Amino acid sequence: MKGGLVVDSGFIYEDEKHLTVLKTSLFFANDGFTVYDCKGQLVFRVDSYGPDTRDTGEVVLMDAHGRCLLTVRKKRPSLHQRWEGYLGERRERQKPIFSVRRSSIIRRCSVAVEVYGNPGEEYQIEGSFANRCCTIFNAQKESVAEIRRKVDVSTNVVLGKDVFSLCLKPGFDGAFAMGLVLVLDQMNGDDYVDGGAEVHPAAEE
Known about the structure:
Layout: E1 17-23, E2 33-36, E3 42-46, H1 53-56, E4 58-63, E5 68-74, E6 83-87, E7 98-102, E8 111-115, E9 122-128, E10 133-138, E11 143-149, E12 151-152, E13 157-158, E14 163-168, H2 174-190
Antiparallel strand pairs: 1-2, 1-14, 2-3, 3-4, 4-5, 5-6, 6-7, 7-8, 8-9, 9-10, 10-11, 11-14, 12-13
Pfam families: LOR (PF04525)
InterPro entries: LOR (IPR007612), LOR_sf (IPR038595), Tubby-like_C (IPR025659)
Organism: Hevea brasiliensis (Para rubber tree)
């Protein structure tokens, strides 16, 4: 599989990688996250941002040491809920490296990801993030990452939606994938009063 956008090459793995994503606060639709590998080592974190994000529209992804990897920010005004991603901590007049948007304002819609500076590199997100079941596909319709409900292997019990798995295919940047998770969480938070956002495949042209 051809590699895509690289936020940080330190999070690209040669083998399939399974990460555990934990929401660190459950009081709001949009909260902080901690992300661990299979050995229990912290990989990413997002400090709890609660309701204030509705004002700033900005979320920062950090590594285990608190280094800013990526900032995702809601573009306003935006009819189709467009979000943009910036390397590191966003600065004024900094150009985004990718954008994420709903392809329709209708509830049943798809989410499209466009990478700037690399024509032809795009991604489609299909499934339901609200139910923690969706897949990120590249332009060749290859799965590059999956979000799934977490199962307790000792009891075979499906855990709550505040804990879920992020499966990375070989060569796909985990920091980019986690940035997309943050956008999906924000979109889901915007739809929280409606019972959660769903993303569905767009009609074939």
